[in-house]
Design brief:
One of its GO terms (molecular function) is GTPase activity. This is Selenocysteine-specific elongation factor. This protein is an alpha+beta fold and about 525 residues long. The chain contains seven helices and 31 strands. It is elongated, with a radius of gyration of 35 Å.
Length: about 525
């Protein structure tokens, strides 16, 4: 398909189906001609006013699409067929628009037009099929690529049989071969026309059938409902429409896209599982930092023939048309097909999918400037599984004030040891609030500093004056003279602090958890 004509009833304007046709043309990147039909139903005295108004409304509706400059013509199919009226009046504007579109298309693709690769496998999409007595079954369609000649053996899809070409006709004239872009009738033998209505004729073994596929996901901007993993969508592939269950996931490696067609790479690498995508806010349910490539696994179970470079479109065709909402949800080009032979071993569990999880705990006590004891983080799990994991200390503003590593268990119960880098002054980090402080805190600090200056005193940090919650701080400075000259121990409000670990939990591997480079801090 090289271009499209969008026919709109001038008396009804853009309806739900009309809008969906515009979306389809945009997905397929087709030049578009807009034909306002049934202009004969408008009274002559108000026709020009009505046509101008409708044309302006359509231009406004298309202003944010690739079709904002598409030609709009006025036609009447009924009057064109009426022998009492000159046909040129009602059809010439459309013919002229088609000629201009073809000329523009040819200029933009001047290096592609007319180029045919005779080494390409043949692919012909047929949309009509009928029996011809004494000859066989004729299939009419368009050659999409390659060449087709009398005597060639072809696969007839979707019935999957192999037949030879008996004859070819183009506009009722017999020819020996056709090439890409030709519209023709292909006569085959030993096929019942009742067995098939539309499908593909293809070189033998050039098209594989698949029960599932993986593709990058492109959201249709006009689709308003949430797209959820494990939900079902209608999937249109070529002439086939099937129901598929979807699984959403993301890849963190920006170089993954060209490699994902390799099944070994798919099976050996790890992907973030996504619960849902909200098209209205263009966000996903998970933290998507470091994840830039989004994919969908489509599983429709039964084999479907998929031509190379097909565009797959997902929709909700069971949505009530009266609701006036777009039913087209997302689209993409498959980058990995799961064949009918491979499918029995495949499912979403074949992918290494993980979710980003968090655990929170408390600071039981501070040992020194590089070590603390935590608790209440592993009440329902073992500390041992998380040894070596990165831990963040969060303040009451949910800002990270220090980061360390779990070293192991401590004593009885759920307590654990956390070590911080040698260049970290844990006390300093916990008593200095990062980022802008609240107005109230700043005001209190200023008042205290002003009062201290008047009295000639040195005022400690505000946080150090807050109540102590089970704190023991052994200063680096030694305690001298057995308490007669002790170092002053600063006070820290542990109640305003909490510990957090972020980790990956794998869905299909029992008890497998880890932290990758996105969550692990490096300590040297």
């Amino acid at each position: 398909m090289d271009a499209a004509i969008l026919v709109i009833d001038v008396n009804k304007g853009i309806q739900t189906q009309t809008a969906e046709c515009i979306v389809l043309a945009e997905i397929l990147k087709l030049p578009l001609i807009i034909a306002l039909n049934k202009i004969d139903l408008i009274p002559e005295n108000s026709k020009q006013t009505r046509l101008t108004k409708v044309s302006n409304l359509i231009k406004k509706s298309l202003s944010n699409t690739t079709f904002k400059s598409s030609p709009i013509v006025h036609i009447s199919a009924t009057q064109t067929l009426d022998s009492s009226q000159p046909h040129t009046k009602f059809i010439d504007p459309l013919v002229d628009a088609i000629k201009l579109t073809i000329a523009a298309f040819s200029n933009q693709n001047i290096n592609k037009i007319g180029q045919v690769s005779y080494n390409d496998d043949c692919l012909l999409a047929f949309d009509h099929c009928f029996s011809l007595k004494g000859q066989g079954t004729v299939m009419t369609g368009t050659c999409l690529k390659g060449t087709l000649s009398v005597g060639d053996s072809l696969q007839v899809l979707p019935i999957g049989v192999q037949r030879k070409v008996k004859s070819i006709q183009v506009f009722k004239k017999s020819v020996k071969s056709i090439t890409k872009g030709d519209r023709a009738g292909i006569c085959l033998v030993k096929i019942e026309s009742s067995d098939i209505e539309r499908g593909f004729l293809a070189s033998v073994n050039s098209i594989n059938k698949a029960c599932a596929c993986i593709m990058p996901i492109n959201i249709v901007p006009h689709y308003k409902n949430t797209i959820k993993s494990n939900s079902q969508f209608h999937i249109s592939i070529g002439y086939e429409t099937v129901v598929a269950r979807i699984t959403l996931f993301a890849a963190s490696d920006s170089n993954l896209y060209p490699q994902i067609s390799d099944s070994n790479y798919l099976l050996s690498n790890e992907f973030l599982a996504i619960d849902e995508i909200d098209p209205k806010s263009n966000t996903i349910s998970e933290n998507k930092s470091s994840f830039s490539n989004y994919f969908v696994l489509l599983d429709w179970k039964s084999p479907v023939y998929i031509p190379i470079s097909s565009t797959v479109i997902a929709s909700k065709l069971d949505t009530d048309l009266a609701a006036g909402i777009c039913r087209l949800a997302f689209y993409g080009n498959p980058i990995y097909l799961i064949s009918d032979k491979e499918y029995p071993k495949w499912s979403s569990s074949s992918l290494n999918l993980f979710r980003i999880k968090e655990k929170f705990g408390k600071i039981n006590r501070i040992v020194d400037e590089n070590n603390l004891i935590g608790n209440e983080m592993f009440l329902n799990s073992s500390v041992t599984s998380f040894v070596g994991f990165s831990v963040d200390v969060l303040n009451d503003l949910n800002l990270v004030v220090a980061s360390g590593v779990i070293e192991g268990t401590f004593g009885q119960g759920d307590k654990f040891k956390v070590r911080f880098p040698r260049n970290t002054d844990l006390y300093k980090g916990l008593t200095e609030t990062p980022g802008p402080s609240s107005d109230k805190t700043a005001q209190i600090n200023n008042n205290q500093q002003n009062t201290s200056k008047k009295k000639g005193m040195t005022t400690p940090n505000l946080i150090s004056e807050l109540p102590i919650n089970n704190v023991r701080l052994d200063s680096v400075e030694t305690i001298k003279n057995k308490g007669k000259n002790k170092s002053k121990l600063p006070k820290i409000d542990l109640g305003s602090l909490r510990l957090r670990i972020k980790y990956r939990k794998f869905i299909n591997v029992k008890s497998k958890i880890d932290q990758n480079k996105h969550f692990t801090h490096l300590y040297q």
